[in-house]
Specification:
The complex is a heterotrimer of chains A (457), B (194) and C (410). Chain A has 457 residues and is mainly alpha-helical. Chain A is built from 17 helices and two strands. Classes of the chains: A mainly alpha (457), B alpha+beta (194), C mainly alpha (410). At the A-B interface, helix 1, helix 6, helix 8, helix 17 and strand 1 of A face strand 2, helix 2 and helix 3 of B.
Amino acid sequence: MQERRALPMPKINTDLLDFVLHTPRWYWIIAAGLLLLLGAAGVSEGLIIVIGLQLLGLSNVQLWAVFITNFIFWVGISHAGVMVSAILRLTHAEWRRPITRCAEVLAIFSLMTAGLFPLIHTGRVWRTIYWFLPYDFTRGIWPSVRSALIWDPSAIVTYLTGTILFVYVDLIPDLAVARDRSHGWRHALFSVLAMGFKGTSRQWRIQTAAGMLLSALILPVFVSVHSIVAWDLSMAILPGWHSTILAPYFVIGAVHSGVAGVVTTMVAIRKALRAYDYITPEHFDTIGRLQIVVAFGYIFFFLMDFYFGLFAREPVEVAIWELRLTTPPINLLFFLQVITAVLIPLPIWFFRRFRRSVSAMFWTSISVNIGMWLERYLLVTNPVSLKQPFTFMWVPVYVPQPVEYIITIGGLAFASFGILTFAKLLPIIPLWDVKEGQVLLQRVRIGRVTVPGVIRD
Amino acid sequence: MAGDPDTVLGLFCEPDQVAEALDRLRGAGFPGRDLKVLSASPYPEGAFGEAPEQHHLYVFPFVGAACGFAIGLLLTIGTQLAYPLDTGGKPILSIPPMINVMYEGTMLGAIIATVLGVLFESRLPDLSDAPYDPRISEGYLGVLVLHAGRQLGAAEQALRDAGALDLVPGRTAPAPEQPDGPVPEAPPAGGGST
Amino acid sequence: MLALATLAAAGVVALVELLLGGARSPASWGYVAAALAFLLSTAQAAPPLAFASRLARGFWGISLRRAADLWVVAGLVTTPLLIVLLTRLPDWHNRPSIWLNWPGAPGVWDAVGITVLLLAGLALLWAGARPDRAAARALRGGSASAWRGTVRAWSVLTLGMKALGGLYLLVLVFVHLLVVSDLALSLVPGWSSPNMPPYHAVTALQAGIATTLLTLAALRYFGGLERYIRRDAFHAAGKLLLSLSLLWFYFTWAELLTYWYGRTPAELHLLDLLMFGPYLGLFAAAALLNFVLPFLVLLWNRVRLTVAGPTLAAALVLLGNYVDRVRIYVAAWSVAGPPRPELDQVPAAQWPGLPEVLVLLGMPAAALLLYLLALRLLPAVSLWEYRAGALLEVERPYLKTRVPVIAKPS
């Protein structure tokens, strides 16, 4: 990248291990705040378990609402971790180096957060194991693979395991550096985790080969996970859900919200670790350009969903769109979704000045994720709410209850706390990747000017 | 701890010195398989004149995928036959949903096997007594000579002649603990012409 | 070229015969639509690969950019072909479509769309060839051209190429949406699948890459351009072809799974018509040629690093794309009739007669003929881009080895 400076290796080690080896005061304050929010969410969940699901705003019409929205949202956020890391690794994009691990860690903790919501949603959480584990606990009941809901555990377990292993393999050389730089319990911990890594030529060759191989393997998994989540909806014969485009639409939406999530994480990591030499405005500029491409893809799929919802002019499909476009307060949420997910951020990303501005990129990424959460909310709740004519009595319109708000915020706190803890215990900016970038950095003379170049190994 | 007395590690500042050291050691009759370069980051393959590392990492994903596929197949067939529930007129052994679960099983098997392959091919965990110096992490480059035997002296001389900053012998006490904090500067990373 | 001209002429004659009342059934026009969709998906979908390589500043793409851009001339075949097909559409009144009774739809707007695509493609080709045409004129000792080669001119040209490439890609995706929805989806009762336009566009990009790969192989082998058309172009395009072949399966699977799970009578008839009924052989062949075989060929890194491997996969994809388009459009036109809510029965397979076969062969032959004629006017490798790439890619010694260094100026 054009703006890379030559950084000595000891400086890289000091800068990127500082947060791991020393604890600033603000860490305890932030961690305490997040734990407080987690505690509140835990209490709310406890109340749900003890009292029951009537604490939620659900009814026998509105069976899926905020918790399923959160599930889909967090699975979506987890996508860009792999997308940024794997695709950029496979295309040898140099700018990926400082941000791949924070993207992968975001994926891990987002996925864990996502996995909590279906469990919370069941009410009697412990009964889930009878339902999805392939073991005959009692009464001869086995999981039915013909249910789309059973595909979710297989996909999420695969993706979570794959991402954790991916991060661990990539982390081994950095654990060796941390081992060499630490003492006491940290030294013992890093020594065990580093497994005696010494940095031989063979080990480095295997590392680079493994990075490419695991990237190639995890990319199809990344596509399949959110497709399977989409098929939870589209396998049901419900207008607005039963659509052939839901799987690719969800995937592109996940990438849109996930890349925004990566930007948010980059800003936070840059500030927390004071990594101004490593995560530069050029990184935000480049990821902003990626966001433009993804946003156009998202708009295309959104328009396909809209046009083909009206294509056959079926009354039930038209009713969904009438609800979203003309019926308050749903239409207000819909317009807010469109404005925050696309209309505000996309024009801003067209300007290089704003792409290079860390605060502009931060606030546009927050805007995107507000919009994408609303998109998932409307997608989940609207079609189900139209089952009203099939009930024998009028049920109240769905309104989220306090416990749903608290647990939703708790989900955000869980993911944030997970990423913060990871960054505290382990290096979140890849040391060896950054160092490799330094080794491969060259200068090329063209006429009178010298431009930066990179060795293509 | 008692190290391997037949080994020695030479520490260097510059990649050119490492290349020269390897040339001298090969010239002194040490086989390539007993010479290892240690570094804090990967260098382009063949940069030090070493032979390309042969590995079979690419076999592992296929083996893992085959195992995962088989487990997925057995699981899906087994559960459907064990609990034959007619859902919406779909056949008891429904292939489309089976494919989804089998696909995930295949990929999980491939990924796990690849990771195991990485550890195996990297020879991790490395429990050997070969010498190591924490200054490698700070940007120094190491040339490790294994199985030197009676030629240990010649190896040490070759390393000194190539400009080794320090020699770490195999029979030695554990390296002193490094404090958390700044350590001696090493030259900036990067080699070759600009 | 004589053989191509003969085949093209036969195709045009067959088309005229169909127009003059020689069509045995609406399915005959399905074959014409398949030929149109094939050219739109292969030849006219080749330039986006060049655009992608310009955008990503990929040096692997230098040798393929002009070869890909030249395929825009196929628009001179597809534009009149679509206009002819639009006159053969059944009554559009109250027909489910994306147009929602918009005046002039679909005929006028589809014609406008494909014309804009043709013009955008020609503009892209013209702009990109300006420096080379000026150089050729100078070599021949001709009059001075308007191209001066100043710093500003180069800056405007490179930016303009990216803008035109982006515009072309957007219009191409839009035209694919128009073609598949108006010539297929709207004709089949109950087939309101929003998955089909992206499927059509993505498989077009796949076949566009295949077209470019085959073109490069031919230019290397028959054109004596081994020194300029490098292996890394095949390697990089092969990787893209592999990923798009996986996407072929993904979009097909999304469609199949949704209808299979719905299991309403209408959806089961759709599955029967398009996949498991009279066109099962075509569907299986399409799956084999578009996904299974290319995947097995391109999975191996060693094979991707050769010229023959990606070329073989490209040939399979090209054939598979044609089979797939025949499956979709012939099936659709075989049930075209008055609008009705859902498909209630699936007709038998409609096999092609001689006119249909001549159209299927003649239209691609016409496009290939135009391409070869264009090669007489413009060099197959973009000289200015090749020279620019040579400045930015150097090989230099690094310790005991030699390494390629890619310069990355801002």
